């Protein structure tokens, strides 16, 4: 039930005064019977709108779903008829759940903590790529080494600079021969917690992601053959690969390059943000403005998509901002047009500009746009400023060892 209702909230994010086609355009991508129950399965389980809304209300009262979302609009499209409670203008869905929202401490905002998850020390580690010191050491060198690129000028750190937030603070990154790919570079910080990589989710793992930019002609414009040949020409690298991948007859492979970089990236986690300290018990870690912003973030329903340890559900949601077709370019499914993976929000205060095209520089403006387009809510300047203040409290500490440029082995082969 929790999974069903959590996925259902996605259907409401683009709801406006008109809800024709909301299910097909915004819900069916997740409600396909695999990720979440299909429309047919929902209608089979809940025979009436009232029965469905009673289940939703129970979850809100239990604190397992955020209040304030337009659940009634989804119910209307599923079952037809007049909007249910919570959908009419002026009716607040969280009005009947006040008994469950009393603060558990002297901090009146502590009740909102239950909608968030503290950042673990490490993300999940795949069984076929164990995290070892030797592999992380090698991965760090490869991350910083521009010799993986055709021009020997571009490294992973060029576009994902660990000293400035794990990205390059440009609308779109500059690659080989100053080409651009048209999309903003996501941060590599905390990327191990993401379910899929890239804005369109075309890489299911960090290992697959690491291979992409190296070969993309608008980025590093290299090939597996060039990379392996250059690395094998540097004796110290050959030694490091043997240490990182013991027992392999020929460890210097493109697959192992990707595995080493991915292993290093899984250590790029940012603990000790003010918000993390607040979640773990330090009630003074956030300012009053930041706490008010957190409350608005929950009340407006932002946590429906921005949840989990990095505040991303890893799902794809429609956000028609320009002519970029998003997920459709990967799946060729018309239902995926203009859908993009939910951006993670940790360190969002230092990773401007925003959106998949990097077209918005102001965090406050980005908050307003998302509220309007995804939630159908027009925020005041004060509300946007408070939410932005909260989001800036998500800035953690990049490990010093990770952002210290290593001394790379060898000379310049070829």
Automatic annotation (TrEMBL):
GO CC terms: cell envelope
Pfam families reported in the protein's UniProt record: CCP_MauG, Cytochrom_C
Xref: PANTHER family: CYTOCHROME C PEROXIDASE-RELATED
Phylogenetic classification of the source organism: Bacteria, Pseudomonadati, Aquificota, Aquificia, Desulfurobacteriales
Signal sequence, start to end: 1-20
Molecular function per GO: cytochrome-c peroxidase activity; electron transfer activity; heme binding; metal ion binding
UniProt-annotated location(s): Cell envelope
Name of the protein: Cytochrome-c peroxidase
Residues in Cytochrome c domain copies: 134-265, 288-395
The protein's Enzyme Commission number: 1.11.1.5
First-level EC class: oxidoreductase
The organism of origin for this protein: Thermovibrio ammonificans (strain DSM 15698 / JCM 12110 / HB-1)
Entry keywords, A to Z: Electron transport, Heme, Iron, Metal-binding, Oxidoreductase, Peroxidase, Signal, Transport
